[in-house]
């Protein structure tokens, strides 16, 4: 005979192999795992458990009409049959919290080394935030930030998504910066581009969204159309961005960054014209020479072009290409040339900061 849905029993809970402590005095159920721990550990750091247990004690006190009436047997949290149920949590998260509360100093130290378990720290920070273990949350966030700021490699894409979400949840700008740096490294390798777009849109991360769309645009339309993680609106944004970037690249040689002359310069008009001609020369295709490198750049790759221009200007200012023919542009005052380099650097940053604006929903 088949059992009805109401007759099907939930799978029996299992005791956690590490944190079901025999002399513990509080039993908690998280998902399908039983934890038995010391209540004194859970009330550390003035956590939400402190308030919860205080309210529970007060309620029990006020509802007892007489000291002669025996207390209720098997109260919540005193046995496996009647545990405190934590809804919405994951067993691995609660295990990470207990790890932080019960660990030895050597175990804590390992979490701050190159051998750190970033997933454990992610779980710890998330549940510490929920239950208001403030010092534990800050420690986990700082450990994650230090780990991901110093390690060269990249975490798994799944972990990186969680790190990014966690940095927003906990409002940790340092961790967010470390996560965005990791994303940019992945994007530079052409990996997880669609994932980065979706994460940046969902979390409203402007700088990451711009470079993500840009990297996907460089992959070409065949890549956009075949990627199942992109929707129709996102493909329209890519088309719009491609059109806008082509237009800006065409205008770029004739639109040098604004040059602010040094106060000691008396050749203002000449320096301005010389810089405009120098800028145009770096961005105009010619056979051979440094400017010929632009032929290797995609027609819509605005960022690569302004970075190329900035690098050529820097190399000239630093004397690394002293024989560069500037007969068409003319000489510049030395201090104005330094200002021109800073203007080129600012142009690169301006393009990076405003990439997202080029990818609108309307072509």
TrEMBL record:
<feature type="domain" description="BTB">
    <location>
        <begin position="24"/>
        <end position="110"/>
    </location>
</feature>
<protein>
    <submittedName>
        <fullName>BTB domain-containing protein</fullName>
    </submittedName>
</protein>
<dbReference type="InterPro" id="IPR011333">
    <property type="entry name" value="SKP1/BTB/POZ_sf"/>
</dbReference>
<feature type="coiled-coil region">
    <location>
        <begin position="334"/>
        <end position="361"/>
    </location>
</feature>
<feature type="region of interest" description="Disordered">
    <location>
        <begin position="64"/>
        <end position="83"/>
    </location>
</feature>
<dbReference type="InterPro" id="IPR000210">
    <property type="entry name" value="BTB/POZ_dom"/>
</dbReference>
<feature type="compositionally biased region" description="Polar residues">
    <location>
        <begin position="64"/>
        <end position="74"/>
    </location>
</feature>
<keyword id="KW-0175">Coiled coil</keyword>
